[in-house]
Design goal:
The protein is built from one helix and 28 strands. It is an all-beta fold. The strands form four sheets. Strands 2, 4, 6, 8, 9, 11, 13 and 15 form an eight-stranded mixed β-sheet that branches. A hairpin with a 4-residue loop joins strand 23 and strand 24. The relative contact order is 0.19.
Amino acid sequence: MNQRPHTRLTSQQITLSLILLAVLFLPLLGVYGLNQTSDTAIVVNPPTGSYAVGETIAVEVWVEDVVDLYGVDIRLAFDATRLQVLDADPNLPGVQVTPRSDILSPDFVIRREADNVAGTVWYAATQINPSPPASGSGALFSFTFMTIAEGLTNVTVTTYQLADANGLSIPAQASGAVYQIGDGATATPTETSTATPPHTATATATPTITATPTMGTMTATSTATPTATPSTTPTATPSSTPTATPSSTPTATSQPPIETALRVLPAAGSYVVGETILVEVWLEDVVDLYAVDVRLAFPPALLQVQDANPALPGIQVIPRSDLLSPDFIVRREADNEAGSVWYAVTQVNPREPVSGSGALFAFSFASVAEGTAVVTVSDTTLATLDGQVIPADPFGAVYELTVGADYKLFLPVVQRN
């Protein structure tokens, strides 16, 4: 089998990025203690200052006295009524901050964004092989505040995590900053808090990659080199999702046909209302797979997903290990009101990428009304160990639901997205 060219992971595929980040930070979280102290510090510079309204503040977020650093996840909170982050790269969507390479090489940047409505900054990055672990002190990222209103305002480190090349957490303490905007005395520094990462002052958004870790998401290799690390060009302009249907009449200049297929099985059939349909979602002829994010859509008026694990909240589907090992599960849920199924998992170090065919997950539909039920693959992302997207051709399913029929007829119909 010939390996197909891969397209780069886009910055819009947030769930997959979270998966990859989880692979970096979560493989061995249980091995560090919660009461450790450390000389390592995360600091916001400058820690204090007085500024006029309309003035800018050049801010750097530093790590000090760290040993064997390989990945970081740092989140800040600020008063959006007094401060606004200036966009460091207008060519990218959103408000960007600036990655720094003073100590950590930002080989793969997962988050580098500010939210001027919520008043947050989120920076997450990791090195990748062959970059060696980093020790010492230096700026991790920087940005510029514009002061917009008078008053005393705090910048706090709400969540932080430092990790080494093996995914082990590095204990640290964190301190924020206090700025006086307009008239008033110079502010005093914020108290330094001590904690072992992850230290969260506020609840984290996202399934952090939920990462329900199970999905802290993302990354690792089968050698001593760090966790799976995505593409080295994460800040590139997002590309469009690979097309579902390759050209049926390629020309000399067209791309080779996509061989990998994602299928909902059975692809078609006739069922009596009240009957159960056992469904498997299969991946065929894939090469170097490491993580998946698959979403299905179905008509909830005709079909309902049966809960595979009532002990867990929500409606669960069943992870399968025929092909991909579901080491870290980000999503495995169905929504019977919205008519959706979402399954996202990744392998973790030291597992190697997988190739071939097999079921990714399974579940059962209960047929609840008469009609033609079309199940579509609404979104799919397949990724290699280094975060590159694997093109795939998705195929849904069509089920005829009837009342009082005493037979089941397989229909020669395949729903192609």
